[in-house]
Structures are given as C-alpha cells and as structure tokens.
TrEMBL record, chains A, B:
Positions of the HTH hxlR-type domain: 24-122
UniProt name for this protein: Helix-turn-helix domain-containing protein
Pfam families assigned to the protein according to its UniProt record, in alphabetical order: HxlR
UniProt key word DNA-binding: yes
InterPro entries the record matches: HTH_HxlR, WH-like_DNA-bd_sf, WH_DNA-bd_sf
Record's keyword terms, sorted: DNA-binding, Transcription, Transcription regulation
Superkingdom field: Bacteria
Length: 139, 139
DNA sequence: CTGCATCCGACAGGATACTG
DNA sequence: CAGTATCCTGTCGGATGCAG
C-alpha cells in the first residue's frame, strides 16, 4: 500500500497549483485574463501610457462602466498603474507595469494569432455548416 | 482633397482588421478565445487526444452542457476534431487540429504566466487593499 | 458513455443620467 | 475629463431528466 505513496504525493503537489482545479488561485487568475476587455485594454496600453478617454476611444464599444471596472481590476492586480494629475480638468494616465508588460506580449500574441488565422477559422466554419446541412438532408 | 487619400486608404485597411473594432470578425474570434472553458479545453488537449469523460474529469467543475458547447464551438472553428467510434458504448475522442496546436502554444503560455506570477499578483492585491483601507481612514 | 432539451436563477454588462 | 449610480435586459451557465 506504500508503493504509490511517493508518486501520489508528487502528483498531489503538482495538482495543487494546476490551473484546472476549481477555486484554485491560478484558475481564478486565468479567469481574470480570459476576459474580453482585459485583452483589449492590455493590448491598447502595450505601446505606451494612455488617458481614460483615449482608451475609451481606442476600444470601440466599451461602456464607461466596464472600462473603469476593468482598469480597477488590473490596477488591483498590479498589471497597470494609475496616475492622477490634479489639474483642471483632471487628467488620469494608465500605464502597464513591468508585470503588465510581461503579460502584454503573450496577449498580443493571441490577438495577432486571431488576426492571422481568422480566414482559416471562417473556412472551417463554412465547411462545418456545409456538412451539417448535408447531414440534415440525409437524416 | 487628394493629399491624404493614400494615407487614408492605408489607415482604413489597417483599421479594417483591427481587433479593437466592434463587430469585426477578428474581435469576435478574440471573444471566442477569451472564454474560460476554451483555454482549459485547449490546454487539456495540448498533450494528446482525450475522450469526453476524460476531459470532464480533467477540467474540474465543468458541466456537461458547457463542455459540449465549448467542444462544438471549437470543432466548428477548426480548432479541434471529433472522432466517433461506434462501439457499445459509444466512444468519442477529441484532438487538436494543426490550427489548434498552433493556438495551444499561445494559450498555455498565458496559463504558465498565470501560474508563475500568481504570487506577484497576490502581493499587489494586498498592497492595494492596504492603501485602500488607509485612504478610507484618512477620508 | 456521450450527449441533448428544458427550466431557471444569477449576474454580467449596456444605456442613461448625474457629479467633482 | 473621469468617473459614479441606477436601472434593466440578455444570456451564461448550473441542475435535472431523458435518449441513442
């Protein structure tokens, strides 16, 4: 009964930080990153600091609510920094932290992949729908 | 009136495939990828084919509904393939396509980043909350 | 075993209006 | 300009039951 103990312990340790486990912190972080607005905000900031309204313009279709919410969450997690200039009117700049910049590369890679392979995906989609229609007729 | 035409055309072409634009196909694809279950499924398949119930076990907390839904969407988009073996009981294997494998690298990179930097994020979170409490007291 | 159909609650998130 | 507050709707997604 002791033969697998060591292996089991190792397995458990490995699994402890495995993103697949529910409620695990890494999983939560992955959740946070798997957010539409997060990708877009990080990508928008990847080539330099931007002001709030600047971001709002750049990220078409984002509501002030979601933008603020996303920015706050990312600030909280140390992905970006928020700098307020108390002029009139107020001016707020957002900028990626070093941590954020290390992430930005990965996310823009995904974004670039999407732009590169969109055609392939469309082709696959049409193929799938063609087969589906065919199956419906045969059935 | 013609001085900026060429530049404008270029700009429009660039913008046409910009993931920031709403309703743009690339944006839609980015949406699809920014799904919690998508990351997990792709990651789970990144080291070989798996059966349905195998995936269900590996991805803790996924309901059959969401798993099937995610698998169908990814199959439709040509990210993975579905192979039915008409035995009794039925056996279904899922496997990444070449397209899917090219994506898997990127997504697991993000997952690895999450596992690597979770501590930093936690530290940032605590720092943020400390400042927040301080501000609340000062106010 | 591998799903699909249905119901239903929770909550994400858009629109709008207002404030420092 | 940079948000906050409120309302309200859609839809994501869990639970359950059933079928091939």
């Amino acid at each position: 009964m002791a033969t697998t103990t060591a292996a089991q312990r190792r397995e458990e340790a490995r699994v402890a930080y495995d993103a697949f486990l529910r409620g695990c912190p890494t999983n939560q972080l992955l959740d946070r990153l798997s957010d539409k607005w997060v990708s877009l905000v990080v990508a928008a900031l990847s080539d330099g600091p931007r002001r709030y309204s600047d971001l709002r313009r750049k990220i078409a279709g984002v509501s002030p609510k979601m933008l603020t919410q996303t920015l706050r969450a990312l600030e909280r997690d140390g992905i970006l920094s928020r700098a307020v200039t108390p002029s009139v009117p107020v001016r707020v700049d957002y900028e990626l932290t070093p941590l954020g910049r290390s992430l930005a590369g990965l996310l823009t890679a995904v974004k670039d992949w999407a732009e590169e392979h969109i055609e392939e995906v469309h082709a696959a989609r049409e193929r799938y729908e063609a087969l589906e229609a065919q199956a419906a007729q045969a059935g």
